[in-house]
Amino acid sequence: MDLKSISSSDLENSGFMYTLSLINGKYKMVILYCLMEFDIVRFNQMKKYINSISYKTLSLTLKEMEADGLVHREEYPQIPPKVEYSLTERGRSLISILDAMCTWGEENKD
User: Fold this and answer.
1) Is residue 10 part of a domain?
2) Alpha helices by DSSP H, the chain
3) Residues 38, 55: contact at Cβ < 8 Å?
4) What domain range is 78 assigned to?
5) How many domains does the chain have?
6) Other C-beta atoms within 10 Å of 4: how many?
7) What angle do helix axes 55-67 and 28-38 make, rounded to 10 degrees?
8) Which of 14, 24, 32, 76 is a good FRET partner for 63, with 20 to 30 A between their CA atoms?
9) Mean pLDDT score of the chain, rounded to an integer?
10) Residue pLDDT, tens place only, 21-72
């Protein structure tokens, strides 16, 4: 019988830690949820949806998520500037996780 030993485990190099590194942050899960629910969202719409986030934090978080390949940014050359955000295929692959979290929350909230 092969028993797992915590002393030989390496949490830092696990898939769990990698996933957590991509979605960890105060607003990343909320941004993912917003894009999952509404498909394509403009910057100011997202700011209104996530009322407690500052413009700077939203901008930095979206840039991080774009660099990680979770969010696609589409900029249109017009005045005033128009920028839309959506999930990439990689970002959409997290939808099942978000759905499971939503289901768990509905089943366990008071």
Assistant:
1) no
2) 15-23, 28-38, 43-49, 55-67, 89-92, 95-108
3) no
4) 40-110
5) 1
6) 6
7) 80
8) 14
9) 90
10) 888 989 999 999 999 999 999 999 999 999 999 999 999 999 999 999 999 9
Distance of alpha carbon 22 from alpha carbon 7, whole angstroms = 26
Residue 92, C-beta contacts closer than 8 angstroms, at least 6 positions apart: 36
Structure tokens at 87: 């999930």
Q: The whole model's pTM is what?
A: 0.83
In a domain, 61, yes or no: yes
Query: CA-CA distance, 20 to 105, in Å (whole number)?
Result: 19
Task: Please list, residue by residue across 65-89, b when 16 or more beta carbons sit within 10 angstroms of its beta carbon and e when fewer do.
Answer: beeeebbbeeeeeeeeeeebbebee
CATH number where 44 lies: 1.10.10.10
Residue carrying the six token digits 């719409």: 45
Contacts of 47 by beta carbon, 8 Å cutoff, 6+ apart: 53, 55, 58
User: Which range among 4-18, 22-36, 60-74, 93-107 shows the weakest confidence by mean pLDDT?
Assistant: 4-18
Sheet holding 41-42, edge to edge: 41-42, 82-87, 71-76
| Per-residue pLDDT, 68 | 96
